[in-house]
Design brief:
Length: 104
């Protein structure tokens, strides 16, 4: 749990669109607001144990200092806007074994 007593996996809102086609869920927009991090993405996943393939960005809501934002832009391809960091992310693998990564 964090300092406010929230679990890292807890979220405040979840929204988006879904289209079911050929045993897959396709999403043109998925938005999940965790406590302190907003995630937006697009992609698809299989309903029967097949692949998951989502791409998007994660934005840290708390404003960061100059050194943190500079380091993030240089080494993790992060972007900074108004002191808030944003990173490109990917969710791949399967529902049984999801893989999360910050991507280039």
């Amino acid at each position: 749990k964090d300092a406010a007593g929230k679990l890292p996996s807890a979220f405040s809102t979840f929204g988006g669109d879904m289209e079911l086609k050929n045993h897959r869920i396709y999403s043109k927009r998925v938005a999940v607001d965790f406590y302190g991090i907003d995630v937006d993405g697009t992609g698809s996943m299989s309903l029967i144990g097949g692949p998951v393939n989502y791409r998007g960005s994660a934005t840290i809501e708390k404003k960061q200092d100059f050194f943190t934002t500079t380091f993030a832009r240089w080494f993790k391809h992060g972007k900074e806007k108004d002191g808030r960091l944003s990173f490109p992310i990917a969710l791949t693998g399967t529902l049984a074994n999801p893989q999360f990564a910050v991507v280039h």
